[in-house]
Amino acid sequence: MYSCNYAEAIERTVEQLSDYNSFKTICYQHHDGEPFPSEKVLHEIVELCRSLIFPGFFGRANVHSGTIGYHVGVNIERLIGLLSEQILAGLCFTCDHTREINLDELRKTSMEKAVAFIESLPQLRKILATDVEAAYNGDPAAESFGEVIACYPAIRAISNYRIAHSLIELGVPLIPRMISEMAHSETGIDIHPAATIGSYFTIDHGTGVVIGATAIIGNHVKIYQGVTLGAKSFPLDENGNPIKGIPRHPIIGDNVIIYSNATILGRITIGADATVGGNIWVTEDVEPGARVVQTKASR
């Protein structure tokens, strides 16, 4: 039994938390029949994708040439069911509920997008194989491709990014961002799923890396821990609100190396074959082939 004071405090708190004005901007009002995005299910989706892209390393380990067809078929069947439902959840989450929602039509759209994603898996495997190769070639401590796939946080983060980016390209809302944030939590590497990243991409060590939504990264780019490809402060509209949806992150050319804790801000271009040293800020274009390092202090 609560004392009178406890009961009054609880009743008062219930009333305050139930006040619509206190939660109207931060509450999602669920609608009957609509699924809600599930981080638990998305974790399974990512693991299924990894098991299909890197057979034998994720999911069931006893995969060989004789069982690969069965392994792929079973996992794709499971994946398409889970993914179509999560895509539907994302579409429902962002749809205009002031209008009547046709759930049957949204389910059809969700399945079409899930099938299109499944069709992208061979290309995802192809480009992720280049990322594995880049990580192996770029790290003298790596002893095999298998070690890179099994151990390197960059591969986990980049695989989540490439899965999420494929979904972004299919027009799937919310779900790609959740998948990229799962990798952020797991690895400390924050890659927005809308960023554009070429082949043979690698992140050495990785913790603290941030890559913004409108960043464009070329082929054969290597970055180290703590690198930020970020934006300057937002421009504002006539009402003082931030203008969103404009290009605001760097463009990184082919064969660029960016060393640890470099901060590159704004819609600037780092030219092909350039090198950016560690612990510096870059807010202006860098010419192709240039080497940008800290200036030594004079004595």
TrEMBL record:
The keyword Cell membrane does not apply. The keyword Transport does not apply. GO terms for molecular function: acyltransferase activity. Keywords: Acyltransferase, Amino-acid biosynthesis, Transferase. It comes from the Bacteria. Signal peptide: none annotated. GO terms for biological process: amino acid biosynthetic process. InterPro entries: LbH_SAT, Ser_AcTrfase_N_sf, Trimer_LpxA-like_sf. Gene3D superfamilies: Hexapeptide repeat proteins, serine acetyltransferase, domain 1. This is Serine acetyltransferase. It comes from Candidatus Gallibacteroides avistercoris. The lineage of its organism: Bacteria, Pseudomonadati, Bacteroidota, Bacteroidia, Bacteroidales.
